[in-house]
Amino acid sequence: MANRNQNQASKTNAQEVRQQNASSQGQGSFGTEFASETNAQEVRQQNSQSQANKGQGNQ
Fold this sequence. Notes:
The protein contains 3 helices and no strands. It is mainly alpha-helical.
């Protein structure tokens, strides 16, 4: 059964996907939205504190 789908044509329209990708350029995406809301320094500090607490046996 592993070879069953190998000879079937893809049902994805590659040209349509390219057009959708091109039209989405420049529009906000989740990746940039969430990245802009993340304070990297604060995350590092929290991670450091968490590691210190684990060393003391406190979680």
